[in-house]
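Researcher: I'm preparing a figure for a lab meeting and need a structural model of a single chain. I don't have an experimental structure, so a prediction will have to do for now. The sequence is pasted below. Please return the structure as tokens so I can convert it later.
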Amino acid sequence: MKVSMDDSHVQQQVFQVLMQAMARPGTWGDLPVGAQPLDLVLTALCDPAAGFADAENRVGERTRLHIGTQVLSEDTAFFVVADGSSAQAAERQHPCLGTLEDPHLSTTFVLMLPEATAENVLKLQGPGIHPSGVSMDVGGLHSRWLERRETWVRHFPMGVDFILLRGARVAALPRTTRVLTEEGI
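Model: Understood. Here is the structure written out token by token.
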């Protein structure tokens, strides 16, 4: 069945899946099938006031027009679409971290992950997670993204959030989440 980005019920469903992912880090949610997952995510999150960056041109022209926002540089956008499997993509990022007064004026990365990858298990701790923590497989996410993230979230409440997109599955690593490798490093 073909899913339309114009359908408000679909947009609400996608937004709900995204909010559940943010509220429960480490949990993968399923987006509706029948449309490009990236297009669904950006349509649910962006509006004319919230621009996005797409250096790799992954977002189609129809989606850009539908959202009605401008495409910005990676250092000024609220949402940045990037290759989560690339160390080079992580290195070129200089995201907005917000301010103490306005921490919400920060970047959310939408990181595209390959579907078939080796396992990479992280241990997560923080709000929305059981006190003993939870394990999450982020196979395909290059370790450089996690290293950079640690620097970016160091001065909470400022920082960045990650939305991980693997096919039609989505998960999130909000800035409030503490990330460890399975070994605790």
